[in-house]
Task: structure prediction
Amino acid sequence: TKDTLYVALSADVMNLDPLLTSSATDNTVNYEIYDGLVKMSPDNVAEPWIATEWEISDDGMTYTFTIRDDVHFQVGEYQDGRLLTAEDVAYSLNRAHEKAWWNYIPYFEYAEAIDEHTVACHLEYANALFLYDLTSPSGVMIPQEEVDGWGEEEFGSHPIGTGPFKVVEHVPDQYTKLEKNPNYWGVEPYLDGL
Result:
């Protein structure tokens, strides 16, 4: 259709679970499905995304983020497109740190929700790259209900995030079909599908 963009990728999309992303091809799709706390500007400066602002402790070992209050997950099998909270941010970052195959942010210790819209990230030691490292494809927001419901092995076949597009069909070795997320918190995509 005229409102769908067809994109030829150089390789198969292997996995849509951000923990198992292992190629630029996977990331090309995952960046449309998921959002992280911050994003990098064209001149490599960390800018607010899911987080609206942050404070860094004097010792550089704790980053406290304020989370947007208008971000919803895409509708899934185990949740109805509910509002994202600081608990989701803590869950997503802790899951990435504990389970990502490539040792996601090795100096990250843990994240904790302070209240509904505030999350603190604790580091083992100060590192000026932390905000940049948060832009990794593994450090994106996902709902625990979907991971628990599908199971760790199957979540990648039924991914749910907060990004501008949602997966409606993924056929390995063939195609991945995305549709515009009608509840996206950011600028509405110009396209209905990818």
The beta strands are 38-40, 46-48, 51-56, 62-67, 108-115, 118-123, 165-171, 175-180. The mean pLDDT is 94. The first strand starts at residue 38 and ends at 40.
